Records
---
Amino acid sequence: MEIDHKIYRVELKHTFGISRSKNDWYDIVIIYINDGSIIGRGEAAPSVRYNESTERIISVLNKSIQLPEDCSDRQVIWDFVFPQLQGIRALEAGVSMALWDWWGQKLGKPIFELLNVDASRMPLTSFTISIGQLEEIGQKVEETEPYSILKVKLGTPGMDKEIIKEVRRHTDKLIRIDANEGWEKDSAFEMAKWLADQNVEFIEQPFPANDLNATAELKQRSPLQIYADENSLVANDINQIRHAFHGINIKLMKCGSLEEGKKMIDMARLYDLKIMLGCMVETSVGITAASHLAGEVDAADLDGNLLIENDPYSGVKIKDGRLVLPELYGSGLKLNPSFKELLY
Ligand SMILES: [Mg+2]
């Protein structure tokens, strides 16, 4: 058995703007677990917000990851490999996905079944409108035609209302707001009140993750529910933040494994928190792996692969705005033939 990897540049259809950054492309890393007959695939999409980079991931992978002597069991391999990943969550997530994909194919089961996730009712997914020029919004809204929920990135001082007004000139679909820590304390309550009249479902991460008090205060007064993203990375965070939020956003790239994602779902349920399953800008490798958890969440925001021009794989699909898992074992990925020179 071997662990292999390839760096891959994802090109975005539109510049991806959020409150703190702007990108036209990202370098992600595809991770392969190959036992000579079965190939498991995972993806690491590092985030600058969490001090991660492709370079750091590659430097760990190039030092070569050691495998245990007995490579017949997923858990044994994971326990052996995990300490070598140096706490880089995106890399952990990539290896976790690849191992689960390999293991599912080996056992002849889809990942959701191995994780005891009920996938009989898959959620609708939202489609993201990132921050850009106001004039582009009409075109972006047109592209969201297949999706019934939009996620609009805000957190641009002075511009947020203009953005929503412009979106509303083109559609009356339900909107989720993601401020990516970009709101000011003074104007947040007024903004939440205004948004409540704009067919908005909830607000994600209004304030910086270290300003939990302001968030708790807003939660008390806001007519809209508040979800944590930058404040909810792993299961251990939930107990400390649950007083300040109505719900959490779970991402594999933040929590580091499918098992940890499942643990977060179970813990959030226990505390009566709403659950969203989100993503970074990722190919179908990451998005499909995450979709195996989607049957148990309230809201899915798994559109990373739809925002890119050059998705090399296919896996989870969208039908009438809803996620549909492939009927295959493991994650259920297929390499799109035109990418055969680059990846496998
Ligand atoms: Mg977010």
---
Amino acid sequence: MTTTQPSAIDDPTKVTQDLVELGQQTYLPVYAPREMILDHGEGSRVWDIDGNEYIDLGTGISVNNLGHCNPDMIRVAVAQMKKLWHTSNIYFTEPPIRLAADLTKVSFADRVFFSNSGAEANEAAIKLARKFSSVKHPPQKREIITFKGSFHGRTLTTVTATAQPKYHEGFEPLPGGFTYCDFNDEEAITQLISEKTCAVMLEPIQGEGGITPAQPGFLKLLRKLCDQYEALLIFDEIQCGMGRTGKLFAHEWEGVLPDIMTLAKALGGGLPIGAMLTTEKVAQTLKVGDHGSTFGGNPVATALAAEALRQLRTPTLMKNVQQQGEYLKSRLNALNAELGKFKEIRGLGLMIGVELQGEWIGQAKNITEVCRRHGVLILQAGPNVLRFLPPLTITKEELDLGMDRFEATVKRFQPSSS
Ligand SMILES: Cc1ncc(COP(=O)(O)O)c(C=O)c1O
């Protein structure tokens, strides 16, 4: 194959263009990366190879919750990398044992399975729910209820759990045994759940679906229904967990405990790792060989995750999430009082969605792109919602700088059809 090689280091713009083109030619065409090459980061800022600075209000989709190149994380990663990188689960190493123990201390769970991504953590949760049911209940009780607007991953099973047809099209036949319910619809779930239900799975705050929190009382109702029908309750906290909402786990706001919880994204502070947590009772239905992963529990990723967890448990950090979250909402409200383009500003802590209205409907992608060109990285959640997921460590000054750039950009924004 012929490719364009990066050239002319004395002409940085040319290098960017060449690398972008090379990426566009060689990547599987499933992404549409912005046309810049990010190079390095520090705290709430990243820079591209041309030296342009960006305030990062997206944290690589809720991953770099402790900022870029957090100095303590670097120290821990380097120390572990100098000792041991990988062994597989044929052997114990210290970092995953310590992380599993820490996770059980800070959650409802007694047992932890480590994976490498969110989809794999959810895959493990689905397999566990089915296995639990297969051991305890008759064969007709295998159905899993998920919610419209959800996102649970891209493997064939987790994409099926994801109740959004746009992610299914062309990938049929999909695995069976999933039923979809309207999110936050108490009557619908009460009607839908039955003796056939083996699990109900949801994100306490839907992320990709548009930053939509479960309404007060909804998680409690699900807990009650699951207990009534002997079904397991699974919380996918892959995006909303790890301090994002101002508590370590989003379900803590409602005081409702699941039987299984999945984590990934910010768990490793930037390195790929996922986890599925559960109770002793549920875990005991699996036996040696029922599930596994070569990389799961990798010593470097788990050492970093333990350090990330240590930092996330600092009360001042959680207070910062709540304070900066309120401040971000107040700035968005003030801007909307002037522009009137936001239908709703919603979310918890530093997980905030802005639903667009009027002629801005469908413009989320264009807005994120013009913001990027003006030095602030934000995300979209579907075509109609702007998504703000800043580092939990962000200072008011950094947030102000990012929001000044955002405001200046959107005030000049002209909707386009592209
Ligand atoms: C709530 C939720 N679950 C699962 C996933 C899938 O995680 P991963 O991309 O690490 O497989 C995501 C990713 O965006 C997510 O937001």
